Structure formats: structure tokens, C-alpha cells
Amino acid sequence: MGKEKIIEAENLFVTDIPHYEEGFNEQENTIVRLVSNHRNKKPYQVTGIQDVAADNNWKAWLYLGPILVLLVVFLIYPLVNTIFISFLNNYNYVNGTYDGFTFDNFGVIFGLTTYNGATETDFTAFAIPNTFILVFITVPLTTIIALLISVALNSIKWFKNALQVVFFLPYVTNMIAVGMVFSVIFDTNGVINYLFNLGETAWISGATRAMAFVPLIAYIVWCGLPFKILIFLSGLQGIDKQYYQAAQIDSAPHAKVLWRITVPLLSPQILYIVITSFIGAFKEYTAIVGLFNGAGTIGTKKNMYTIVYYIYDNLNTHTSFAAAAAVFLFIIIMICTWLQFKVSKRRVHY
Amino acid sequence: MEQKQYSTFENQTFNDNIVLSIGEKGRTVEAIQRATSIRNIAGMIIVYILILFAALIIIFPFYWMVITSLKINDEITASTQTFFPSIVMWSNYIYVFNSFDFGNYMFNTIVVGIFSTAGTVLTTIAAAFAFSRLKFKGRDALFAIFLMTMMIPGEMMVISNYITVASFGWIGEGQTRIDAYLAMIVPFLVSVFYIYLLRQNFKQIPNELYLAAKVDGKSDWTFLWKVMVPLAAPTIISIVILKFMGTWNAYVWPNLITDSVEYRLISNGLRGSSFTDLEGRVQYGYQMAATVLVTVPLFLLFIFFRKYIMRGFGRAGIKG
What we know:
The complex is a heterodimer of chains A (350) and B (320). Chain A has 350 residues and is of the alpha+beta class. Chain A has three domains: 5-51, no CATH class; 59-109, no CATH class; 122-347, Orthogonal Bundle (MetI-like fold). Chain A contains 13 helices and four strands. Chain A has helices at residues 57-85, 104-109, 122-155, 160-168, 175-185, 191-195, 209-237, 241-249, 254-265, 267-282, 286-292, 307-314, 319-347; strands at 5-8, 23-25, 30-37, 42-47. Chain A has a four-stranded antiparallel sheet with strand order 1-4-3-2, with no helix packed on it. In chain A, a hairpin with a 4-residue loop joins strand 3 (30-37) and strand 4. In chain A, helix 3 runs antiparallel to helix 10 (267-282). The longest helix of chain A is centred in the middle third of the chain and has 34 residues, at 122-155. Chain A starts with a strand and ends with a helix. Chain B is 70% helix and 0% strand. Chain B is flat. Chain B is built from 16 helices and no strands. Chain B has two domains: 29-64; 98-315, MetI-like (MetI-like fold, Orthogonal Bundle). With 320 residues, chain B is an all-alpha fold. Classes of the chains: A alpha+beta (350), B mainly alpha (320). Chains A and B meet through helix 1, helix 3, helix 4, helix 5 and helix 6 of A and helix 2, helix 5, helix 6, helix 7 and helix 10 of B.
């Protein structure tokens, strides 16, 4: 609290006290309160209670102190340290030893340098392509489906709230648990093969890489819909009805209304969704564990690797390789986000 | 109003001579209106069919989870799939309760959930208060840095955090239950996103309330707990639920840092348990019964706190 001064009034019966108005004096940044001392019946002005300004400096740091310590230890330091580790040669995290600096960690994960006489191929053969395939299929697919469902939900009258709740359900589930449910549905004796009369087609265990992508993408889309629908619906509710009335008078076809009115007016939400789901899709991991219970569908082959899966797999055995992969992921995500902001400057209507 | 105009029109005795028709293929107004309303109804029906179909797809995994959990294994792996269990096997649940160490995983999850949620809420409130109400040098710059850290993928931090936590002695040989809990709680006590969320909410609280409290001689601390926290309660409840759900769904980190299976959380237990019979075949009935047990608490939470969850996620976009 600021300094408080009590100024005694000259005379209680002076009616004209210009600067003794009760309330907050913005110019002087003080709170004015009229108090009276009953004994001598004189009003007082309490002034100088400043709007928390400069005085509170140290108090703010008291509130922020623990948070800053935690952030530095578990966020800022790790960020720098991971980049550092990615350049260390033969790093051992248990006792912190290493033999100088090297670019080899990046060379190893990209299969350019041999490690212990062997070439690491899983990262370039599986992790990178799988991650990119997932990103470039699931993000557009989920966004388009979510957009269509939201537009449909927004246009109907009955059961709107009930359906909204139904479409939100996948969000409040455990990724691992539902991944296991999907693996039962897509089992060789599962309901998908039965419904579509596909015999004993392998989707999960024993499946080829291409086949395994089907349940994986289905699962990721299923998980991704609710949040996007929620965002799109709140965006749609904010669009002025007049645009649609004008379109109706011009008897514009529905597809044109969707493409020319809804999509442009929803572009801020679409941008937000695309950026966040891009970042999310680059980090796919839990869906794969839930669905395949490992990194591969055939034996010990790691054909369902993603970049993040590679990071977790190598974290305590080849820490520097994991760090190099993490730095690589970080750079890719930064570039993608930057590109999307660039595009959005021209395309997004605010 | 229209009716009235029409009748004046009628009174002018034109109605016998003039047939009012809009020049669309010579159809009358009634015909056009009928066509439009039929088209609208047909469109509505199509929209409903499509959206109900989509809803069915969304619901289906849940339905399949529940009915599979009640089937015997022969029925699950049979070539003809049934859409309702022929014999309802409640015993699957009893088996899972006894063999899958549900109670222990549940206990771990609840302990970690409570402490990390309480800790996160406290740090969030303190930071949001400092950023929204107090003035200090470099406040805006610091807040901008906070926001920028949200862009960094968590995977960048996991590696070093693992090493840090190991150097605290919380991982590795002789890890105790407390060590495991600490390793699961402490690194995630600060969430920049929640700080951002709550700060926005705190900012909406009018200055007048603060000044009134100051006039009454209340300290910042009292004001924070007596005025701001109650006013921002909906957001804080959202944060509590989101954080707790995050713990319930946490998989990667607990898996990394625990040496012993018994210290892990519910998701790890679910994926880590084998649910196989003596011949090594997966018993899907047991597996699905366990997934139902893991999913039901989340559903209950959703039913009771739907408003907060949907609003929280609406603002958020981050799970956990």
C-alpha cells in the first residue's frame, strides 16, 4: 500500500472544498476519502494511497518468485540445455560426461554418419515421413470435417445441444483407453472387417505400414474433431445473420454461401485451428501407443515411428540423438508456424 | 399487414381481371413457396441424416467399448460380430478389479492429481495477480516472454527435465513412492497457459473494487483471496478440472520416470497390463472392462462440470 497522508481540514463548515472530493483522483493517482473525527468534528482527507504503482515492485517479485524459479528450472534451462546436449559427443546424462562438441548427432539421426559401425535408418525411413504424412493428412481432413459438422450443427433447430455434447465427448476421454478400443474395432476379427466384409484384413498387428495408417488417421481425426467443432461453433455464432439474409435474397446456392461467406468470416478461427493442430500433429505419440502398443506393427520393426516417438525411445539410451531430434522438431514447428502467420496476413479476414 | 394490403388490392376489383404471378416459369406465388418449403424440409432432413450419422460414428467406439467389456472372449473373436453380448459377463469387471491393480493406479493418479492441481492453481493465481494487478518494472516484457514459451514444444524440455529430475535423485536406483510422486508433480507446477487465461479474467475485474478494498485498508493479499478469487471462480474451476484431467490422461512422463510399475498412473497401468490368458491370447473383454473403468470417471466429471469443461476448452485448446 502506498503512503497515506492525513490532511486535516481547516474548517468543517467550509462548504467549498474543491480537492476534497471523495473517490479516486486520477490526475494525482490517489484515493481520496473523507473521514471525520467525531471529537473535533473535522473532516480528514486520506490521500496518497497510490494505485499499486512503483511501491509494489518487491511485492510483485514475491508473488512471481516461486513461479520464476520453476519456469527457469523446468522450462528455460531445459530449452537451452537440450540444444546444448544435441551438440555433445558421447554424452552420458548419469554422470554428465562428454567428449567435446560435434555435429555428429544430427548426422547420425539422418543416417549420414555411422554410429558403432551401424547406420540409423529408422529416423529418416519412418519417423520423418510418418510424421509428415500424419500432419498433412489429418490436419486438413479434421479441419474440413469439423467445419462441415459445425455448419450443420449451427443450422439445425432440434437436438442442437444434445448433439453438441455428443460431438464433444471424444475430448473427455483417455487417449490410451480409446486407442485400445480402436485397436479392438480394427482387429482382424473386429467389427470393421465384419461390417465391410473384409475377411481377416490386418489393420493393427501384422499390418503393412500403409494399412496401419488407416486406423491411425481415423483415430486421430476422431480425437481431433471435438475441440475444432467447439471453436468453429463459437465463431459461427458470432457471424452476423445479415450476410446470410443478403445471400438468401440473391438466392445464392448453399455451397457458394459456405465458401464465400462462412469460410472467409470464420478465417480467424480456421487459422487458429490450423496452427494449433499443425503443432499438435507434429507431436503425435499417444495415439500410436494407444493403438499399436509400440512403435511397429510387424515384429520389432519400427514402422510406425514418429519424430516424438523417436525422442522418447532414445531418451535414456542415446540422449544426444534424442536431443538432436527434438531440436529438429523444434525448428520444423517454428518454420511451419512462421509460414502460416505469413500466409494468414494475406488471407485471413479479421 | 400484408393481408390487409392484399384486401385493399381486392377491393379495387382487379382480382377478377389480373392473376398475380411472378415471372418464374409462370408459377404462382403459392407454387414457388411450396417448392421452397419442400426444398428446405428436404435439405433439413438430409442435414439431420448426415449429422446423426456423424454422431453415430463418434458414439460408436464408446458403445463398442461397453459391449465388448461385457462379452466372453469367444464371442469377441468370433467371425460373426454381435452388436449386443449374448451372455452379459459382469464377471469381466470383477476379474479386472482383482487382477489389474486398479486401486493402486487410481490412488497414485489421485494423489498426483490433487497435489499438482493444487500447486498449479496456487502458482497460477499468484502469477495472474502479479501480472494483472501489480505494477513492476519489466512486467509487460516478462509477460511477453511467458507467452512466447507457449510456442515451444514440450518435447524440447522433456530430455533436460529428465536429467534434472534424475540429478535431484528422484529417478533411478532406490526410487521411493515419494520420489516418484515428486518427479511427476514438481516439473508441471507452472502452466503459462493457465496464467494467461486467469490473467485475462482478473483484468476484467473493475479497478473500483480494488480501490474500495484499499480504502478499507485491506492488503493486496486479502483482496486477492476475498475478492478476485471468488469473482474468477468459474475460470479457476475450469483450470482445476482441466489440470486434473491432464493428470488422469498423463502417459509419457510417468512412464519415463518411474522404475517400478506400482508407482505409475492409470493410463500407464492400462497400457502396461497385458490382459492375456494362459496361452498368451489377449482377453479383450478384460481389456475393455479396464478401459471402461478408466473412462467412466472422466465421463462423470464431464456430466457434472460440462459448463466449465466446455468453456475451459473453448478458451484453451490445450489438453491437460
